[in-house]
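Narrative of activities, Objective 1.

The group set out to show that a structural description can be obtained from nothing but a protein's sequence at a throughput compatible with the screening campaign. Below is one input-output pair from the validation batch, recorded exactly as produced.
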Amino acid sequence: QLQLVESGGGSVQPGGSLTLSCAASLSNFRFYIMAWYRQAVGKQRELVASIASDSSTNYADSVKGRFTISRDNAKNTVYLQMNNLKPEDTAVYYCNAVHQWISHTAWGQGTQVTVSS
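Output recorded for this entry:
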């Protein structure tokens, strides 16, 4: 039984776009800080973007101006719109949820994004 399920990954050319979705089966979804992480081959997992319950956002410097994180609390879903993709964006992208008030964290299984020509 998965609490977070990612979708939308795939293979695109440099400059292309993809939108990732994360469907969350979580009680009180609005109280979770949601985030996207990624891990490329041979590299550590890194935070890409996060979004709080008030929809305030933070982005890694490497994706600022290109990626947009958003959430739809009515649908219990978080999105990552990725534009102007670069080969260095190639990674497995993971959805993450951290409750603001209790000790609960969830991870998705990941979705592959490949950017190549």
